[in-house]
Give the backbone structure.
Amino acid sequence: MEKTTPDRGAELDHHLSLLRTLRDEIRLDLHLAGMDARDEWAKLEPRVSELLRRGTQLGTASRRAARQLVASAERLRASLRGRADGGRLT
C-alpha cells in the first residue's frame, strides 16, 4: 500500500470531511425529495459509507474516487435544493 504524504493526507481529510457534511445534508434534504432523488442517493450512500469507513487507508486511485464521489454528492445535493450552481463546498 502506498504511503500517505502530509499533502495527500490533508487532501483526503478534506474530501472525507466534505463527504460527511454532504451525507448529512442530503439525508436531511431527502425528507422533502421525490423518489428519483431517493433512488440516486440509494446508489451513492453505500459508496460514501465505504469511503468514510476506510478513511486514511486509501491510495491514489481511492483519492481520485473520493473527489469523484464528492462531485456526485454535491450534484445530488444541488438538485435536491434546486440549485444550478452545483452547490460546491470549499
Notes: The chain has one domain: 6-81.
